[in-house]
Specification:
This protein is an alpha+beta fold. It has a single domain, classed as Clam (outer membrane lipoprotein receptor (LolB), chain A), CATH 2.50.20.10. Helix content is 17%, strand content 43%. The chain contains six helices and 17 strands. The protein has helices spanning 2-11, 35-44, 118-125, 131-138, 168-171, 190-198; strands spanning 20-22, 51-62, 65-76, 80-87, 92-98, 102-107, 112-117, 151-156, 159-164, 176-178, 183-185, 205-211, 218-225, 230-242, 246-258, 262-274, 289-290. It has a 15-stranded mixed β-sheet that branches. It has a two-stranded antiparallel ribbon with strand order 10-11. The chain is globular, with a radius of gyration of 19 Å.
Length: 295
Amino acid sequence: MTKFFLYIALIVISLSSCAKKTQIEKVEKLPGKSVKYLQTKVEENKLNFESLSARFNARTNFNNEKLSFKGIVKIKADSIIWLSMTKLGGVEIVRLILTQDSIKFINKWDKEYYMGPIEKLNNIESIELGFSQIQEMLIGAMIDYNPEDKFNSGNDDGTYLLSSRNKAKVKKSLTIIEGDSLMEISKLDEKMQKLLDKNSGEDFVVKNYYLLPDNYYLARQTISLIELQQVIDINYSEYAIIDDAYVFALEQVIRIASNEKSGRVDLSYSSIEFNVDNVYPFKISSKYEPFKKRK
């Protein structure tokens, strides 16, 4: 159970708020837009803040193990992420603090804790995420987006698409198989495995960012790690504008898949505060044991 909660805590938190909603309508045919134009719009929509605090409700399904919970997330931009998750009855099950190079968490379900560098935890749990990627998911930003990278522009299902420039055979090598609520990925064929054995790096990370045509907000993003056989797919809807300055998706669906795991998280947010003086309480009971990997 620890691994299940930790996986949720590290991967599947996003933010939004109660505010005036903007309705999303799909456009069947879109005029062409250049990469430079789309990147300019992305930069205009970039979220700048000092701190925030938000509450959320979530329903999860990991390998067909379902759970509902609620929580609070607090962020000091580029510095601290604090998270508390509770069962719907009000019992806290996880508390976590993440910084640029360290992580601390308490798993009250199994009465254990971890304190140390995030790299060590990644090795234990086979999760390769750092502070920046988690913060980007928390604020609904484009994950691992670098404007200096080379992109192609296009459109897909009524949205504009910024896609990383990968070889066609690389893009086709990771096929997402849709299910009722989860997703699966196909295994690499022998030719692609040989190519991976000879090469590695960014050439095997496929990034797709889908932008709404009327305001260029993020509608969806998929990040595929070919070498690790992992993919994350996030869809956004019901956008809200808070204080005429901050834009969030009130409803988010996050799906992840690997050769061993598949999962889905449906998130709904109810309140948010920007630029407040957050506190980040964290205390470990003397009765708790150090975290150990589960088989």
